[in-house]
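Sample intake sheet
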Amino acid sequence: MVNSIFENRRAVRKYSNEAISDEKIQEVIAAFQTTPCGMHQANVMNLVVVKDEGLRNKIEEVTNNSCYNAPVLFLINTKKDSEFGERDASVAAENIMLEATDLDLGSVYIMGGAARLNDFNDLQQELGIDPAFQTTVIVAVGKSAVEPEKEDRSKRYQVTIY
């Protein structure tokens, strides 16, 4: 039997205005810190957590509202020349989303908005993102404003066993 955290995680695209406690944010950061990385190269990835409403609004503006007005954004940044950066960022995003689920929070994985954010050097600089890095994934996190639809994912992908 699969752990229910995997079955309960859903993409959330509508968030309540409820603030997320610093304690819960720290728990999500702790989950990020446990992320495995290719070739044990931990220096090719970092995280910027955006709680500030003004900064979140700027990010929403330049990404065409791709973050769904979530109260917290987790920007996973990877070194531009990293062979494993995108894969490491995806694994980190999954850790963040699963921890959010465990904390009764919703989340969504955002790649298009992350790519657009990289076109705004001034905002990247304001966010403290080193020019040698790029935002690879944004994970929006917050209390879901609606109950996400449940679906049976037990046979979602083809599996071959030899």
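Comment: The domain at 4-142 is CATH 3.40.109.10 (NADH Oxidase). The first strand starts at residue 45 and ends at 50.
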